[in-house]
Write a structure and sequence with these properties.
Organism: Kiloniella antarctica
CATH topology of the largest domain: Rossmann fold
Number of strands: 12
Protein name: RsmB/NOP family class I SAM-dependent RNA methyltransferase
CATH superfamily of the largest domain: Vaccinia Virus protein VP39
Shape: globular
Number of domains: 2
Largest sheet: 8 strands, mixed
Bound molecules: S-adenosylmethionine
Structural class: alpha/beta
GO molecular function, one term: methyltransferase activity
Number of helices: 17
Family: Belongs to the class I-like SAM-binding methyltransferase superfamily. RsmB/NOP family.
Order of helices and strands: HHHHHHHHHHHEHEEEEHEHEEHHEHEEE
Radius of gyration: 23 Å
Pfam family, one: NusB
Helix content: 40-55%
CATH class of the largest domain: Alpha Beta
CATH architecture of the largest domain: 3-Layer(aba) Sandwich
């Protein structure tokens, strides 16, 4: 299972294990593919997974090395776009108008190679200019050439004078995080996006044995952090045998807030692609997994089959669906802006807008209200999102508790429930909610931003 928290209904292109590209098709040019992805992301607000699925045949036609290069190019572009654009603007008398977006994208593609990927200047410039076809674009080759040549000479000096955390974060997110967490933490979060996130897996059992076999380290509980450069997880021992699934350490925590689930009927609401479903089943629960997306539910079925785990799987809108018999416990992992996952999905910073947060907060409130009716009196409800925004986290819960004061109470989480590591208290708020930030445990590779709160039904 590979994690996908972008709420995208489009699957990431599957890895062909041969890595040789597919069929007799002529392999696609990785730089040209990246240009198309950039357009999909920046001008059509698609996630990288969505954009990649538009170009699946091209992606799969490439050798494994070219696929890795294309991914490196697009992810570095997304992580560093603020600095790249600032450096490009410094090379021009005035900013390029939006009708010249294609020209700007070609310069960006050359710039990322010159500034961050150590591509020899002649190769970065000539391979970019080769992509400038068509009368409207090719007429701008002298401009593109001049900007890229200047970046090859002065680019590193320009970068050294920039504030890389601040410059690479969209302004509205910077302002929001400074007002929510303070400038020091906002900067630490922004800096955490600049490096690729490590790969975490959750094992069904025997974490000590699996951490040795896969040469990783146990973060806590059943979560193992693999060493950098481990490569594509589908090639690793235990994947085909269904012994583990990919899940960020922070994403493995909300399910723990339900306590012992052995023998309990647990509703996993908004379940796809099924990371927490697998965790709850492995912990001994009888799980009903509900999600509204047919396409994503297909992945739950595939993932459970690989992991040889069983759940009742229901495709339904959880704003109105109700179980025939109420659950003992429920986990609502609500759709959200996913701003806690920018390390893994740096493009989200470019496609999300402040108004998305408001709309998602309304959807989460509807889901939470309906989930409140799905559990028995005395039952536990855990609400979680991978957002850093208070409207999707603590403010959502405050509103819910204010409207349901006689029906629900918050049960503060104790750090010992999350595991034994001495640093786990860092992840809890003074109210006893879980509040993971991407900058937590930065020196060990950080973690996704996650919020979770535990409630008990009183009446
Ligand atoms: C954050 S993802 C869930 C991740 C999942 N819990 C896991 O651990 O693998 C949110 C999910 O909410 C689902 N969703 C969005 N709106 C929904 C609705 N009204 N009813 C049910 N599911 C919904 C999306 O399809 C998406 O799969």
């Amino acid at each position: 299972m590979t994690e996908n928290r972008t709420n995208s209904d489009k699957a990431t292109p599957r890895n062909t294990k041969s890595g040789k590209g597919s069929g007799n098709r002529r392999p696609a040019n990785p730089r040209k593919l990246v240009l198309a992805l950039l357009k999909n992301i920046m001008r059509e607000q698609q996630t990288l997974d969505e954009a990649l699925s538009n170009h699946q045949a091209d992606f799969e036609s490439m050798e494994r090395r070219d696929r890795a290069f294309a991914r490196l190019l697009i992810s570095t572009l997304m992580r560093r776009l603020g600095q790249i654009d600032k450096a490009i603007n410094a090379c021009m008398k005035r900013k390029l108008p939006s009708k010249m977006a294609d020209v700007r994208d070609i310069i960006r593609l050359g710039a990322v190679q010159l500034l961050y990927l150590d591509t020899p200047p002649h190769a970065a410039v000539s391979t970019s200019l080769d992509l400038a076809s068509g009368p409207r674009i090719s007429g701008n080759k002298p401009l593109m050439n001049a900007v890229l040549r200047r970046l090859s000479r002065e680019g590193q000096e320009m970068l050294a004078a920039m504030d890389e955390g601040y410059d690479n974060l969209p302004r509205w997110l910077w302002n929001k995080w400074v007002s929510t967490y303070g400038e020091e933490t906002a900067r630490a979060i922004a800096l955490s996006h600049l490096a690729e996130a490590p790969l975490d897996i959750t094992v069904k059992d025997n974490p000590a044995d699996w951490s040795q076999r896969l040469e990783g380290t146990i973060t806590s509980g059943n979560s193992i952090r693999l060493s950098p450069g481990t490569g594509d997880p589908v090639f690793l021992e235990g994947y085909d045998e269904g012994q583990w699934w990919v899940q960020d350490f922070a994403a493995s925590l909300p399910a723990l807030l339900l306590g012992s689930v052995v023998g309990k009927r647990v509703g996993d609401i908004c379940a796809a692609p099924g990371g927490k479903t697998a965790e709850l089943i492995s912990a001994g629960a009888t799980v009903t997994a509900v999600d509204s997306s047919n396409k994503r539910m297909k992945r739950v079925h595939e993932n459970l089959e690989r992991l040889q785990l069983k759940a009742e799987v229901i495709t339904a809108d959880a704003r109105s669906w109700q179980p025939e018999e109420k659950f003992d416990a429920l986990l609502l992992d609500a759709p959200c802006s996913a701003t806690g996952t920018l390390r893994k999905h740096p493009e989200l910073g470019r496609i999300k807008r402040p108004e998305d947060i408001e709309a998602l907060a309304d959807l989460q409130a509807e889901l939470l209200n309906n989930c409140a009716d799905m559990i028995t009196v005395g039952g536990t409800l855990v609400y979680a999102t991978c957002s850093l925004e208070p409207e999707e986290g603590q403010l959502q819960i405050e509103k819910f508790l204010a409207n349901n004061a006689d029906k629900f109470e918050r049960i503060p989480v104790q750090s010992s429930e999350l595991g034994e590591a001495e640093w786990l208290p860092e992840l809890l708020t003074s109210d006893g909610d879980l509040r993971c930030l991407p900058c937590h445990r930065h020196d060990e590779g950080g973690m996704d931003g996650f919020y979770a709160c535990r409630l008990r039904k009183l009446a």
